[in-house]
Amino acid sequence: MLAFDSSRYFRKLPIAGAKGWGDYASQSSVYHAYQVVHANGIPDENIIVFHPDDIAYNPNNPVPGTIIDRPNGTDVYHGVPKDYVGKEVNPNTFLEVLRGSEKLATNGKKVLNSGPDDHVFIYFLDHGAPDVILFQSEYLYAEELNTALKDMHRDQRYGKLVFYLEACESGSMFDKLLPNNINIYAISSSKPTQNSGKMFDDKKYKTMIGYNKKSNKIQTDPDIDMLKDWDVVDNREAPVYVLRNLIENSDDLVEKQKYTEELETILKGREYVDNVFNEYVNSIQHLMPNIATNAILHTKQELNNRHCYRQLVDTFHQNCFNLNQNPYVLSKLQIFVNICEQMLDSSDADIAVNRLIQHCDRNGYKNDQQVEPG
């Protein structure tokens, strides 16, 4: 999973940003990463773990206190440090840890107190979209992440740094933003416009319990041959995939009906979100006379106008649907990219933002509204 020079100091930061049973794989993969590093002799004082810590004793866990990351796997939860858990898992704390915050250290929290001879490995898993990754209740833009990494280089906080980012469209977090001369090797699980995947739809756990190990660039599993027997499922389609399998494999009619209703709720919620975006794009089509509505909705243009994009994303998050509560919405943020790439005049972008606010207010959308059960 990783390589390091044992003659130098080594620091590791595994971060699981997502919470909830549906995102079991995020935390189980981070726990597995911790076990690998720990077994290779890295002391806990050199490892900082971020995790919501809400699945080990979750009511849905058939084996309370135990977490696996592959079928019939061994427990990967035992011994995992609780350095940052619950609400502490947020973008600001993460960036402060990278910068070696004196305030956090004074409060007895671990920070990255590394120097120019240290090798640092960062492993992050959560949901993503163009230029953004989620934490459990907030999100982090690519510019802020890359600024923090450049600050680390300026302040000589590492000798070599490897950043492995597992999220949909995770390549967009580094593409054309990360300098190639600061001794950082960034690896993403997906290209800037590509989704990532999960594996192991476990009947006992009734969720996907692992991330896509077939594409994992740092794979060291001794049982890697068993991967060929498992499909990789698009991360964003995982909830639908799991429920369809539960419906197909259940012999209990009451249980089957329960899963069917859950699936219908998800599909109706997604259709609702689709219509929200369709109606909004139609309402501002006059600002984009040189491109068809269908192209805005379904193509994938490259993001350059970040200021406009961030305005639309933040406005939608604050006035329409909370991104953290509605991960499916992330699949629609490319539409904002496409819109912004047509906004040649800043005044047009301002109009687009104001129309979005009006669109959300007029239709009664609420920031705390959840259209797809977590």
What is the helix tally? Answer: 10
Evaluate the radius of gyration: 21 Å
**Proportion of strand residues:** 5-15%
What percent of residues adopt helix (DSSP H or I)? 25-40%
Q: What is the count of distinct domains?
A: 2
Distance between the termini: 30 Å
Largest sheet: 4 strands, parallel
Helix-strand pattern? EHEEHHEEEEHEEEEEHHHHHH
Low-confidence stretches: 1-8
What is the number of strand segments? 12
* Architecture per CATH nomenclature, i.e. the level-2 architecture of the largest domain: 3-Layer(aba) Sandwich
**CATH class designation of the largest domain:** Alpha Beta
InterPro entries: Legum_prodom, Legumain_prodom_sf, Peptidase_C13
GO molecular function: cysteine-type endopeptidase activity
Pfam families: Legum_prodom, Peptidase_C13
Organism: Oppiella nova
Can you walk through the features of this model?
One of its GO terms (biological process) is vacuolar protein processing. Pfam families: Legum_prodom (PF20985), Peptidase_C13 (PF01650). The active site is at residues 127, 168. α8 packs across α9 (333-340). The radius of gyration is 21 Å and the shape is globular. It has a 4-stranded parallel β-sheet with strand order 1-4-8-9, covered by helices on one side. A 3-stranded antiparallel β-sheet has the order 5-6-7. It is built from 10 helices and 12 strands. The longest helix is centred in the last third of the chain and has 31 residues, at 253-283. Residues 1-8 have low confidence and may be disordered. It is of the alpha/beta class. The chain has 2 domains: 9-234, Rossmann fold (3-Layer(aba) Sandwich), CATH 3.40.50.1460; 254-362, Topoisomerase I, Chain A, domain 4, CATH 1.10.132.
